From TrEMBL:
The keyword Ribonucleoprotein applies. Transmembrane segments: none annotated. Keywords: Ribonucleoprotein, Ribosomal protein. This is Large ribosomal subunit protein bL19.
Length: 72
């Protein structure tokens, strides 16, 4: 699952994950302060030079991999 967008905005901070389900790309926006979310765990940090990763929508499989950041 890739996080495409992180929208800053104080209490309205949100993120949009994307995954492929049954061959169809699915995106959903969640608020950080939503009562539905118990906790968020960051497993890896990616090395990217963009704020919004919308270009990953056109890619599939291993092409969606992002280089991992080594020091954070």
């Amino acid at each position: 699952m890739n996080i495409l967008v992180i929208k800053e905005g104080g209490i309205n901070k949100a993120f949009t994950p994307r995954r492929i389900s049954y061959g169809v790309g699915v995106e959903r926006t969640f608020l950080y302060n939503s009562p539905r979310i118990e906790k968020l765990v960051v497993t890896r940090h990616g090395k990217v030079r963009r704020a919004k990763l919308n270009y990953l929508r056109d890619r599939q499989g291993k092409a969606t991999k992002v280089k991992e950041k080594t020091n954070y």
